[in-house]
TrEMBL record:
Protein's UniProt name: ribonucleoside-diphosphate reductase
EC assignment: 1.17.4.1
Domain TSCPD, chain residue ranges per copy: 8-83
The species this protein was found in: Clostridium ljungdahlii
Keyword RNA-binding: no
Catalytic activity: a 2'-deoxyribonucleoside 5'-diphosphate + [thioredoxin]-disulfide + H2O = a ribonucleoside 5'-diphosphate + [thioredoxin]-dithiol
Family label: Belongs to the ribonucleoside diphosphate reductase class-2 family.
GO molecular-function terms, A-Z: nucleotide binding; ribonucleoside-diphosphate reductase activity, thioredoxin disulfide as acceptor
Top enzyme class: oxidoreductase
GO biological process, one term: DNA biosynthetic process
Keyword Nucleotide-binding in record: yes
Record lineage: Bacteria, Bacillati, Bacillota, Clostridia, Eubacteriales
Length: 89
């Protein structure tokens, strides 16, 4: 990995998955892995965001709610991207 490329891990709050692990390479999302949660749906999300620009993923995923929780696994991933990647620049 080059300078600026990093691996991240985020502990989720209020959702079925407990953790999200991912890489950011040249501001593109790579290797997303949700720990726990709805396996099929989370595999789908992981594949859909693979190679996506960080800011674009936040725009698409932020604010999605699951079962009236006020958050969701996609929303938690957007939160992780904002806290760990976008707010560090």
């Amino acid at each position: 990995m080059k300078q600026g490329d990093e691996m991240y891990s985020y502990i989720t709050k209020g959702v079925c998955s407990s953790q999200i692990n991912f890489d950011v390479v040249e501001n593109k999302i790579r290797n997303v892995n949700f720990v726990g949660g709805c396996n099929g749906n989370l595999q789908g999300i992981s594949k859909l965001v693979e190679g996506m620009d960080v800011a674009e993923a936040v725009e698409k995923l932020e604010g999605i709610s699951c079962s009236g929780k006020g958050t969701s696994c996609p929303d938690q991933f957007a939160t992780a991207l904002k806290k760990l990647v976008l707010n560090r620049k």
